[in-house]
Structure formats: structure tokens, C-alpha cells
Amino acid sequence: MPGVQSSSGLRVLLTNNTLGTRAGSEMYVRDLAIALMKRGHFPVAYSSVLGEVAHELRQATVPVIDDLTTLQEPPDIIHGQHHLDTMAAVLRFPTTPAISVCHGWVPWEELPSVFPTIMHHVAVDDLCRERLLITAGVTAADVSVIYNFVDLERFNLRTSWRDKPRSALIFSNYAGSNPATHAIKSACIRAGIERVDIVGSGSGNSVAKPELILGEYDLVFAKARCALEAMASGAAVIVADHSGLGGMVTSQNVGQMRRLNFGVRTMQATAVTEENVLRELRRYDSQDASRVSVWIRTQADMSAAVTDWLSLYEDVIARWRDANHQGTAIEFQEQSIAASRYLRSLAPVIKTRSDAEHRAHHATQIQAELSRQLAAREAESAARIQETAAAQGDLLQRMAAKEVELATRVQEAADAQSSLLQRIADKKREVAAVRAEASALEAQLKAILSSRAWQVATKYGKMRAWFRKS
What we know:
It contains twelve helices and twelve strands. With about 475 residues, it is α/β, with parallel strands linked by helices. Among the domains are: about 10-150 and about 300-325, Rossmann fold; about 165-300, Rossmann fold (3-Layer(aba) Sandwich). The chain has a seven-stranded parallel β-sheet with strand order 3-2-1-4-5-6-7, sandwiched between helices. A hairpin with a 2-residue loop joins strand 11 (about 235-240) and strand 12. Helix 1 (about 25-40) packs parallel to helix 2 (about 50-60) and helix 5 crosses helix 8 (about 275-280). The protein starts with 10 loop residues before the first strand and ends with a helix.
């Protein structure tokens, strides 16, 4: 049987796929658990993967476990999110009634859990309700819709709105270096928006307390819970993400979009392109954004959602007790059959993943061998390059020595040529001097030969020669 209910509250075991990074269902568990605690109840959060959100819960004095065997006192009710963790909890506590929650249409983790002790199913929007009714075969009487909520004690409404947007925020864990983000930023620049920021784990800029910054932005691009928080803070919201563009939330469409949790179904409207985003930016209306914010704060108050959850807990516990479940052999047999069916449903996924992991492991081995061969070839190439570099260095050294030797010889030849030219110049000067002297002597000779003395002497000499012959 379920644990004995405390006089001051219920012991509620909440499960989730992870309690690690700050994402939609993780924050849902955190906010709901803390709200239940503040109302005097005893929430316990369970996941096989813990992290930042688990730390925040512990800081708020909410127990967090990753091993269900540590919980010795059975809970009054199991608030199950995500089938693996929900099934772990209901099998651990077979005499405790449970509620299964569906948060999304696409994720495998959101597959509806069907088990004898799961007394009721909750969808966070109308699309999730369709998933429960159509894909899981849950009857309409066993399904409730408790729409997503926002903690109004944390997210305060701004007091003024600009007529023209000057700042925008892309508020998503999926935003980063992708075409959708680039299209949004380009459209904002064309629209004259001066500041465009990104917050979310995908961009490496996760913010622990978005309530402190949302009031700074006129426009926010977001979906689901992020969109709710932005609208509650007074920002105009354009529903957009990598899945598509849902468009500007207005006072005319806010009710319809809330019933779809501002989620994936709304984003099937059109693709995130620069032109489509620019069209939605032109629909900005500060007065309408104010009306939307007031509507959200009236309709999506977490306080009302917590009251709905507590009412559902009490109803399910009462139905369980009225059915007088005693943990009989027949009931345990039904649970065993259901557990067997559940495990059978996991087989294709697990085996496919196992086969994929085997192929991935084989591919990794091949890649490792290729890497080893490549490394060996790179090492061989490096050695050859080193040898070539050494040979090149030796050749360059020898060439440098030859260049020095050649330069020396050239200098010696130049010096010898200079010396020869100097000697030639000296010889030329000597020849010129001899020629000048010869010219002077020749002139003297001509002067002598033309003188009267030489003429007399010549005649005298002829006379002497004649007298000797006579």
C-alpha cells in the first residue's frame, strides 16, 4: 500500500529523464517540486542523470535521488515523466498509484507509459493529448490536460513598452550557429533592431535566472516554456526555433497557441527565413504585447496549475484506495505481464542502438587503424622531410662557402684588374712622356738643321770631303 500520508502533506515522487541541464521538463519538475514544498508537501525528485537542476532542487531543500532503493518509505503518489524513469519508479513501488505526464510529440523519451498502477495520464497541451489518445490507446476519461505554467513570483511584468522594438533575444537551447539563428539576426538588423542577443546552452550562454534579463528585451524569439516566461515578463514573442516559425503571438491567437504550448505544432506554419521573420517583426504592436502579457499572467499562473495537480493527486489516490488494491498475486501477475510488454517494446530500440553501437565500434576500430597507419606515414614523411631538410641545410652551407670563395676570387680578380689598369695607366703616362721628349728632341733637331750654323757646317763638311778626294 502507499505510504501513510503525512498530516501536513503528500509525499510525491517526481521522475524525469534527467535533472541535469536547464531544459523544459527539468525546469517543470524543479518549479513544481519547489511549489509543492512551499505548500507543505514532501516532493522527492528522481532521475538516473543528475546535474545543475538537481543541485538547484537540493539547494531548495528538495531531496534528489538517482537510486530508488534509497527511498525506503513508499510515496503517496508517483508523478512520472518519461517512460524509462516512470517505469523504474512504478516497478520499485508496485502498490503506489501513478500519473504519467506527456510533454512532447516527438521525443522517444515521451512515449506514453501504460501500466496497471498508472491510474491517469496528463498532457501539457492538446497535441500531447492527441498522442496519448491515438498512439497509446488511453481512454479520454483517463486523460487530463494541465497546460504549462509560469511562476509569476519570479517573472515580473514590465511597466512600459517601446513603440518600436530596439532589442531582441533569441531564447532557446537550440540557438547557435545554424541557418535559423542567422535568418533571425539578419531580419532584426534589417528591421533596425540595435541589439540581438542569444541565451541558451546551444550558444554556450546559459542563464540560471532568466527572470533577471527578460525585462531588458522588447522582442523574444522562443517556444514553449521560454515563450511563456518572456510573455509573462512583457516582451512581444515570436514563436520560432529550428523546427520552424510560428509567428508573432497576438491577443487574437494567444489562446490557440497556448493550447499547443507554443510548441512544435505551431511552428509548422512556415520556415524560418529572413523574409518570413521580417514579416513577423513588422507585426510588432506594443499595446497588443501588453494585452498578451496580461492574458498570460491571468491564464498561465503556476499557482493555479499546482492547485490542479494537487486536486488530481488526491483524486487518483482516492480512486486507488476505492479500488481496494491489496497487492494480490493477480495484480502482481498483471504488472509482470505489463512489465514484460514494456520491455518487449524497448527491444527494437535497444537492439537497434546496440547494433548501431556495434557498427560504430567497428567503424571506430577501422578509424583507429587508419589513424595509426596515417600516423606512421606521417612519421615516415616527417623523417624524410627532416632528412631532406638536413641535406638541404648541408647543400645551402656548401653553397654559402662556395659563394664566399667565389666572392673572394672575384675580389682578388678585381684587385688584380685594378692593379693592371693602374700599371697600364702608368705605362701610358711613361709612353706619353717619352713621346713628348722625342717630340721636343725632334723640334730641337729641326731647329738645329734649319740654323745658319748647321748650314755653314754642312758646306764646310762638303768642302773638306772634296779636298780629301782631291
